[in-house]
């Protein structure tokens, strides 16, 4: 996963150890987007938002030459510890020029809230005919979670926000239009509802993956807010046995640079 982004996931609220403990499912569920990329031996692949490098390593094992970028110092260090050529970079300002056969991204693009800048950087980074293959949160992603966060921030803390400046969750139509305007031909794009088990529980999910949203509150108020959000979500996302399932919707696409 992870954000080579920027602003949303931003800075270094991101602890690789915390992520490994509470969000390992993110890379565990990366098989379909890896299959859509279909990396070949000798290809140059950029992993945009490489996080701790677990999926970058799968690309290396497929024989690709891989560069990973991420906005988090801690994630870049964790990816390097796996032997990945990982670099600190903002996904909105990629500096590569015609260097890659493919750009791959899993669970990172929703942190990059200026998608046209990202698409322009990916287009520059690819060789002619290169492919951009990614999966991230699409329209309706974590809708219940997002609504509960917005509600608690507003009603308990007087903070009015849509969270649109933290997460980008587009429809297929919106993202297709952006890719086409950026010089890509979209070969496939689909929204895929994927309710996702969260074995660590919703409060751990919130602390790890909604850190920028809870970060709108003073540190001393975040745990109580997470408990309140969890209580609101339980009827929708927790089963009778106490298992949590997050209401994920993925947007998965393959696009080719014209
Ligand atoms: C996601 O992977 O869909 C996601 C991760 C963190 C926050 C919101 C969504």
Tag the structure with descriptive keywords.
258 residues, alpha/beta, Rossmann fold, seven-stranded mixed β-sheet, two-stranded antiparallel sheet, globular, disordered N terminus, binds benzoic acid
User: What is the CA–CA distance across the termini?
Assistant: 27 Å
CATH class membership of the domain at 16-142 and 165-199 and 246-257: Alpha Beta
Q: Which residues form runs of ≥5 with pLDDT under 50?
A: 1-11
Q: What's the tally of helices?
A: 11
- What strand order characterises the main sheet? 3-2-1-4-5-9-6
State the major sheet: 7 strands, mixed
Bound chemical compounds: benzoic acid
Percent of residues in helices comes to 25-40%
Structural class: alpha/beta
Q: What would CATH call the homologous superfamily of the domain at 16-142 and 165-199 and 246-257?
A: Vaccinia Virus protein VP39
CATH architecture of the domain at 16-142 and 165-199 and 246-257: 3-Layer(aba) Sandwich
DSSP E strands, number: 9
Shape: globular
The topology string of helices and strands comes to HHHEHEHEEHEHHEEHHHEE
Strand content: 15-25%
Mean pLDDT across the residues is 94
């Amino acid at each position: 996963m992870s954000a080579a982004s920027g602003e949303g996931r931003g800075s270094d609220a991101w602890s690789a150890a915390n992520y490994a403990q509470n969000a390992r499912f993110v890379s565990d569920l990366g098989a379909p987007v890896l299959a859509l990329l279909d990396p070949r031996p000798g290809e140059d692949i950029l992993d945009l938002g490489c996080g701790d490098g677990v999926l970058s390593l799968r690309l290396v094992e497929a024989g690709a030459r891989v560069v990973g970028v991420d906005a988090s110092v801690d994630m870049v260090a964790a990816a390097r510890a796996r032997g990945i050529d990982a670099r600190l970079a903002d996904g909105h300002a990629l500096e590569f020029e015609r260097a890659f056969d493919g750009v791959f991204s899993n669970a990172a693009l929703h942190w990059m809230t200026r998608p046209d800048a990202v698409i322009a950087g990916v287009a520059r980074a690819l060789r002619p005919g290169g492919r951009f293959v990614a999966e991230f949160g699409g329209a309706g992603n974590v809708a219940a979670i997002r609504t509960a966060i917005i509600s608690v921030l507003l009603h308990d803390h007087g903070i009015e926000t849509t969270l649109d400046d933290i997460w980008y969750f587009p429809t297929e139509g919106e993202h297709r239009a952006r890719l086409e305007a950026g010089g890509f031909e979209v070969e496939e794009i689909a929204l895929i509802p994927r309710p996702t088990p969260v074995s660590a529980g919703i409060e751990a999910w919130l602390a790890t993956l909604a850190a920028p949203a809870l970060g709108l509150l003073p540190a001393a108020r975040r745990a109580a807010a997470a408990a309140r959000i969890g209580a609101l979500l339980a009827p929708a996302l927790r089963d009778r046995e106490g298992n949590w399932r997050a209401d994920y919707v993925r947007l998965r696409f393959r696009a080719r640079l014209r």
